[in-house]
Amino acid sequence: MASTTHTPGSGEDSEPAAQDGAPKSSISTANGSVAGSRQTTQVADRFSSFGQTIFTEISALAAQHKAVNLGQGFPDFDGADFVKEAAIQAIRDGKSQYALMTGVPDLATEIADVFERDTGIEVDAKKEVTVTAGCTEAIASAFLGLCNPGDEVVVFEPAYDSYKAAMAMAGAMVKPVVLRPPDFSFSRDELSAAFSSKTRVILINTPHNPTGRVFTESELQFIADLAARHDALVFSDEVYHRLLYNGACHVSIAQLPGMYDRTVTLNSLGKTFSLTGWKVGWAIAPPPLSHAIRMAHQFVTFSVATPLQHGAAAALRAPPQFYEQVRADYTRRRDILLEGLRDVGFNVFEPQGSFFVMADFTPFGFDDDVAFSKHLIEKVGVAAIPPSGFYSNPAEGKHLIRFAFCKTDAVLLEAVRRLKQHLKLQEPCDRKAVS
Ligand code: GLN
């Protein structure tokens, strides 16, 4: 289950090697060596340390073992009809040719209006909003458009996997700072030490995937001060900003004094509106930064599915009660899972935001997240994400497992039932034996 690099032809479909041992084909690999057989990886150097994403891997295993999938973070319920109808209407109305590279004007205007309502910052939809293929593309285009090879990027770990892949594509260097349990806040000394004269960007994600941490205003101010002192940019991934619990309050770092000019605020439709497959996201940034992001975006995707942008515009016109309902529904789902995991015996770290919860599974006698997630899928019938791959030092995440609760109540209850039935707490002496 460790990351598996795709090796073309390594499965049943592989063709036999030529009898004289000579290469069947001589394809020059990206790293300059010659592919002597189809077993040789064709992956370019920039991706040599990456495998298939853990989300794809776990979802495939979950399907194979018919496990309840609390792994990959996608809702198992549908988005709202008024949003879907708007997209369908756009198709009926013939809105099916390329959208403007920067986004359908109606959507860009809605994004600017929502941002102003949330943050008090007035932005020019034409110059400061760029619609992208999900937040993942916004992140990639931000790195590609704004970073040079060798630039350093400070990133909190555990880090969502696409961040480092986007940095690798841009040739940027990762400077990790670990968020540690129980509250997943950061050491201010470690963060200060991660900055240098080469720091180009600090990437933050609040509410944070996978820990559920919501950065406080004081933490954000500390980050802002460091960014200003080092003249660094801030990329702020805020895709879970509507999913907040127990009075947690989301602050966009762009709101802090002087910060808008050095910040790229990234968001999307998928999480809030349960439309992850639509892949509609956006980047909001002052004109010089937006211009750089657009340089990349125009050659990566150029533009985003036109009818879905019309649907997204309708979504963003949702009244405040819509967001209140989303929050109430997620609070209920979160409570079902938290209570269940605690009953089973996990040491649970309560999330303040997002739709994920991290838990320590060592009470069950395991001490490796990959082995534990395999056990969960195969023997318990529940899939969850082993997070050690989200750290530069995997040992930091080795005792943790991430569950997603963007699932119907019935699915969450079934997962809890299976966990209760099949997971057994270890006696203290047994635990000692495995540690
Ligand atoms: N954002 C989702 C998660 O964290 C995964 C999306 C994906 O599969 N790339 O689970």
Can you describe this structure?
The chain starts with 26 loop residues before the first strand and ends with a helix. It has 14 helices and 14 strands. The chain is of the alpha/beta class and 435 residues long. Mean pLDDT is 91; it is low at 1-36 and 431-435. It has two domains: 54-79 and 321-426, Aspartate Aminotransferase, domain 1; 81-318, Type I PLP-dependent aspartate aminotransferase-like (Major domain) (Aspartate Aminotransferase, domain 2). Helix 2 (81-92) packs antiparallel against helix 10, helix 5 (134-146) runs parallel beside helix 6 (161-170) and helix 11 (320-344) runs parallel beside helix 13. The protein binds glutamine.
Write the layout of secondary structure elements.
Elements lengths: L26 E2 L5 E2 L18 H11 L3 E2 L11 H12 L12 H15 L5 H4 E5 H13 L5 E6 L3 H10 L2 E6 L9 H7 L4 E7 L11 H13 L3 E5 L25 E6 L11 E5 L2 H14 L5 H11 L3 H25 L2 E3 L6 E5 L8 H12 L1 E2 L16 E5 L4 H14 L5 H7 L1
Parallel strand pairs: 3-13, 5-6, 5-7, 7-8, 8-9
Antiparallel strand pairs: 1-2, 4-10, 9-10, 11-12, 12-14
Bound molecules: glutamine.
Distance between the termini: 21 Å
What is the overall silhouette?
globular
CATH uppermost class of the largest domain: Alpha Beta
- Ions, cofactors, ligands: which are bound? glutamine
Query: How are helices and strands ordered from N to C?
Result: EEHEHHHEHEHEHEHEEEHHHEEHEEHH
Number of domains: 2
Keywords: Aminotransferase, Pyridoxal phosphate, Transferase
GO molecular function, one term: kynurenine-oxoglutarate transaminase activity
Domain Aminotransferase class I/classII large: 67-419
Organism: Klebsormidium nitens
